[in-house]
Design goal:
mainly beta, 9% helix, globular
């Protein structure tokens, strides 16, 4: 379902089908990047990052977007605003496909 501002909601699904968090974005990839930044296993560099599968169900549909996700820590840019911490978490995702579920 698309909200008035054009964003859609995506629920993060675990292996047993429970949904723990909701991420919003204009596209599934945007929501997947937000979810990837909150992975438990965050590496010190992108090349050392472990890849993990994440599944996002689009609210109001039976679509489950499947991504390969990884995250790593980086130093904040030198022109960062004062409120930003010195280190940030960056992430990347690669779409693996879409699955359809019956229990919506």
């Amino acid at each position: 379902m698309v909200r008035e501002d054009g964003k859609r909601n995506f629920a993060l699904r675990s292996g047993n089908g429970t949904e723990s968090s909701v991420f919003s974005g204009n596209t599934p990839r945007q929501a997947a990047l937000k979810a990837a930044r909150r992975l438990d296993d965050v590496a010190d560099s992108e090349s050392n990052a472990d890849h993990e599968e994440i599944r996002l169900r689009e609210k109001g549909t039976d679509k489950v977007h499947i991504y390969d996700a990884w995250a790593w820590h980086e130093d904040a840019p030198s022109d960062k605003p004062d409120w930003m911490p010195g280190g940030i978490t960056k992430a990347n995702v690669s779409k693996q496909g879409i699955d359809h579920i019956d229990d919506v």
